[in-house]
Design brief:
The complex is a heterodimer of chains A (220) and B (307). Chain A is of the alpha/beta class and 220 residues long. Chain A has 9 helices and 10 strands. In chain B, helix 2 crosses helix 3 (294-306). Classes of the chains: A alpha/beta (220), B mainly beta (307). The A-B interface holds A 44-46, 65-67, 70-71, 75-76, 78, 82-88, 91-92, 95-96, 98, 137, 141 and B 218, 246, 280, 282-283, 285-294, 300-301, 303-307. Bound molecules: adenosine-5'-diphosphate (ADP) and magnesium ion. Residues 10, 12, 30, 32-38 of chain A line the site of adenosine-5'-diphosphate (ADP).
Chain lengths: 220, 307
């Protein structure tokens, strides 16, 4: 589905290559500052790569804006949720879903629609609430490639198990889509069919969970 | 409705929501004359005899009533100053829907100065909604509203002051005097574009213990427009005051904000916040990653901000 070939960006990404196929659930992990979020932003078009190739279903998307890439089927859940003034949870989810039936996306992330839909997406919401709304806005997309950037961060009350269930559900319901999760959590890595370790802008390790998890433990 | 052409009817609807004869008291002022006036059992509307305008008397204990007093100007070059005085009794809860729309397709400026003075009785609550808008390719559409409020003990006023579009120049003055336990909430929404200018000054004097004011001003300035916002909260008692001024600046526009606080009592708690800036790029990017174009994202953010 997506081929990433020798992608470099500033001095942050240094020749990153891997492919994402339909049905994949890939976890990208690695130390802070290794370039994980930057890589995601390069894929969805927030940042433009300096060299290398990005092929989405065979099409070169390097020159496409993030709007165009979103419309092609790429979706990204930000590590740091964005605050707005005047944009409500309902507005955001309606934009994401393209229709008005948005209750279900909030329920999926464990938020009561009646309590949240009309609230403005600003700092009156807690970090965890903002994060869940951010995740819901991406689940609401009818995308082919979903990227979640540290979805577990700030998720406190809402149990971790629910989050994992959301990803498992998505995978079952949308077998032709792929999910990439940037995460430090072993429980999330365990449901992946592939784990990629990014270090200093390069892929240091890549393979199945069985193969990579023991090596990661050794490194720690 | 009445004797209005399509443009006038649309303007009337835009600024006051009125599409026909409303229930309750009303006064429709079109091109300097009242073209329809009605008093209800509890709300009396009487024209002034010494100058332009009306006096509105709301009887003690009036609840859940709405008075509509929209103004339309479609005659190019009309200049008027209109004085409306509101006497709201004790224990009332009423809504006043004002608003002014100017259509100008001629060569001379059209100007409406609306001077509204409120006397709000004890324990009463008043909602005041004032929307302004200008259309037409002609000379300037100018609106200068002055709103003065005297709030008695335990009374409360909520103001929504909105300038939607098309007003070339505005000088707005909102002044409130608050007695013991009185409260006022002032929401202002200003949108300027082209070469328009908007000047807004809000002064709240908190004279009684337990009184409070909350001012929330949001504005968007586009193109070459200029805005100036000035708020002054004077705390002369044990009181609370909060003013928040937020502006989105775009293109070549200019915005200045001068919030001021004046505490004259050790128990006055006064806060102001002011922020001016362009649309945050991460907000645009977030909406673009949900499939909106840059323009769509911009208008979503602006419309939401001014809602
Ligand atoms: N826009 C930017 N310009 C320059 N440096 C950046 C930018 N964004 C992030 N960085 C730097 O790039 C490195 C990788 O950041 P990031 O991709 O956020 O890492 P990770 O998500 O793996 O923690 C960090 O050193 C960070 O400070
Ligand atoms: Mg990151």
């Amino acid at each position: 589905m997506l081929q990433i070939k020798g992608v470099s960006y500033k001095s942050i990404l240094k020749g990153v290559s891997f492919s994402i196929n339909a049905g994949d659930l890939i976890v990208i992990t690695g130390p802070n500052g290794s370039g994980k979020s930057t890589l995601a932003k390069c894929i969805v078009g927030i940042e433009k790569i300096d060299s290398g190739e990005l092929l989405f279903k065979g099409e070169d998307i390097r020159e496409k804006s993030c709007t165009e890439r979103a419309r092609l089927g790429l979706a990204y859940s930000f590590q740091q949720p964005i605050h707005f003034k005047g944009v409500t949870v309902r507005d955001l989810l309606m934009i994401a879903a393209g229709n008005e039936k948005v209750d279900k996306y909030l329920k999926k992330v464990g938020l009561e629609p009646e309590l949240y839909l009309d609230r403005e997406i600003n700092s009156s919401l807690s970090g965890g609430e903002l994060k869940r709304i951010e995740i819901a806005s991406v689940i609401a997309r009818k995308a082919e490639l979903y990227i979640f950037d540290e979805p577990e961060a700030g998720i406190d009350i809402w149990s971790f198990g629910n989050l994992i269930k959301v990803f498992k559900d998505m995978r079952k319901r949308q077998p032709n889509s792929a999910i990439v999760i940037i995460s430090h959590q072993e429980r999330i890595m365990k449901i992946a069919n592939r784990i990629i370790l990014l270090k200093d802008g390069k892929i240091a390790l890549s393979g199945s969970a069985d193969k990579v998890l023991p090596q990661l433990e050794k490194m720690q | 409705m009445m004797d209005l052409d399509k443009i006038e009817r649309d303007l009337m609807k835009e600024v006051s929501g009125v599409t026909g004869i409303p229930e309750g008291a009303y006064n429709f002022r079109v091109n300097g004359k009242s073209i329809g006036r009605h008093s209800s059992e509890k709300i009396d509307i009487i024209p002034k005899t010494d100058k332009s305008g009306i006096e509105i008397y709301v009887a003690d204990g009036t609840k859940n009533e709405i008075a509509h007093i929209p103004v339309i100007i479609s005659a190019s070059g009309l200049e008027e100053a209109v004085y409306n005085d509101f006497y709201i009794g004790d224990n009332c809860e009423v809504t006043i829907i004002a608003g002014c729309g100017i259509y100008n397709c001629g060569a001379s400026d059209s100007i409406h100065d609306g001077i509204h003075t409120f006397h709000v009785g004890k324990n009463s609550k008043v909602y005041y909604i004032e929307k302004h808008c200008g259309i037409g390719p002609g000379a300037k559409k100018i609106l200068n509203p002055t709103t003065r409020l005297n709030l008695s003990e335990n009374s409360c006023a909520e103001l929504l002051l909105e300038q939607i579009k098309g007003v070339d120049s505005t000088r707005r003055l909102t002044e409130a005097d608050l007695a013991k336990n009185a409260r006022i909430v002032i929401k202002e929404r200003l949108f300027t574009h082209g070469k328009q200018s908007a000047d807004s000054k809000i002064v709240a004097e908190l004279k009684g213990d337990g009184s409070s004011v909350d001012i929330v001003s949001r504005s968007v300035a586009q193109d070459y427009s200029r805005q100036k916002f000035c708020s002054q909260i004077i705390g002369a008692a044990k009181c609370r005051g909060h003013s928040e001024c937020d502006a989105i600046i775009m293109h070549k526009a200019q915005v200045s904000a001068e919030p001021s606080l004046d505490a004259q009592n050790v128990d006055a708690e006064l806060i102001h916040e002011a922020a001016i800036g362009k649309i945050a790029s991460e907000q645009l990017i977030k909406l673009m990653t949900l499939g909106l174009s840059r323009r769509q994202a911009e208008s979503q953010i602006i419309n939401g901000f001014l809602k």
